[in-house]
Amino acid sequence: MESKDDLPKGRENRQKDSVMTNLLDPDARGRVILVGAGPGNPELLTLRAVEVLRQADVVVYDAEIDEGILTYIPKTAQAISVCSESEGEKNERQPLTQGEINALVIAHVRTGSIVVRLKGGDPFVFGRGGEEVEAVRAAGMPVEVVPGVSAALGCAADAMLPLTHRGLSDVVSFVSTPEQETASSVNWKGLAGSGHTLVVYMDIKKARFITQCLIHEGIDSHIPVVIIERGTCKDSRIIRSVLINLENTIQNEKVVGPAILIVGDVALFAKPKNTLHQDYEELDAMAD
């Protein structure tokens, strides 16, 4: 295979011109469009996301994408569901590696197809969107990115919970639950506490680990927390608790995910929805 350095100068320039033409021409064929599908509710898709879905020849979408969003895919398009590595624990299907997903997308775009890679939330917030863009570029293909409403922002709005609030929080941190439960897997220091809001893209099986890490860093064990399951969707649940009682609350409420955890005083604003426990004071008392 020829490397970029092996290409004659004229041929290299022609390749660059071809890529730029595809990027500038909305009707150009053979390109990848990485699209953020938002946190779940189809009504939160951007206008641009709907537009590119309707012009797609092939849509490669994450298995967790809501069915309502998939209705925007044309009947003439090939729709391919993939279970990514990050979804593997939530699906019975064997997850594909990131490399396998990249290869699938590139193989289709090389046929001249408009390939939409549809990902939950925003592709660049814990969505491995950067890796997919790099792979497409390395293959010499044009790529566009359409941002989506991130799960953190969508879920917070669903719960009527401001991530920042004057006098309570002026710092927000976003963390994805680490694959390995080791003390060094995430630098938890300074991520939560007074004046801070911590949002955890959560593997609910690691609730005890998250609790232990934060308490070890000196976070008040009774700090308010909110668990938001399937945020923005019709069956979403908004569950209030306190940090020390996080694991018990998840078990009692039978939370299965996907879920977002919000830690901090702003959690007091959350409006409970579809839960067994409604009162923060009751949950706080249970933790004593």
TrEMBL record:
The keyword Methyltransferase applies. Residues 31-243 form the Tetrapyrrole methylase domain. The keyword Cell cycle does not apply. One of its GO terms (molecular function) is uroporphyrin-III C-methyltransferase activity. Pathway: Porphyrin-containing compound metabolism; siroheme biosynthesis; precorrin-2 from uroporphyrinogen III: step 1/1. Keywords: Methyltransferase, Porphyrin biosynthesis, S-adenosyl-L-methionine, Transferase. It is an enzyme of class 2 (transferase). Its EC number is 2.1.1.107. CDD domains: SUMT (cd11642). GO terms for biological process: methylation; siroheme biosynthetic process. Signal peptide: none annotated. Belongs to the precorrin methyltransferase family. This is uroporphyrinogen-III C-methyltransferase.
